[in-house]
Write a structure and sequence with these properties.
The protein has 194 residues and is of the alpha/beta class. 38% of the residues lie in helices and 16% in strands. The chain has a single domain, classed as Rossmann fold. The chain has seven helices and seven strands. Its EC number is 3.2.2.n1.
Amino acid sequence: MIKRVCVYCASSARIDPVYFEATERLARQLVRHNIQVVYGGGAVGLMGKLADTVLAEGGSILGIMPQFMNEVEWAHKAVKEFVFVADMHERKKRFLEGVDAVVALPGGCGTLEELMEVITLKRLGLFAQPIIILNTKGYYDPLAQMLERCITEKFMADSHRDMWRFVDEPEAVIPAIQNSPSWNSGAIQDAALK
């Protein structure tokens, strides 16, 4: 049963409208399945679209944001559930507490950094939940190629492909979560290739 999902996404408002539309569709799917959304707490870009849609559909959303971002008024005013933390490191740690999956939408360096960290944590057996990458408009094609190259060049094992799933449409996210292979804390035994 999926109860809570963390969504990594961007704060840029200048991006192609196709990304906003995909975010809205994903938000509706999450609300329809009664899944609480955990996100970065922002009010603009895909973060804003995600929160606006979840709230408009009557869903539950939790924002997690460093205090310094709140001080420059980045926090979404309509999101009632908020956790303000000391820094970015604590934010990323809190994102993963009690979630049943992580979903990465297209984004910039912050989104990429969060995504690579959670993949690394999974490789080490410190996070065991599904990681779903929404590849709207082929945005993450270069990342898929890079991760595959990590495996073919033996920087990662073949089994590491099970750590993530790329999907092209928002409606494929929940089925991808449900059908992701299990992962356990023993993964650290295979983290280093010998």
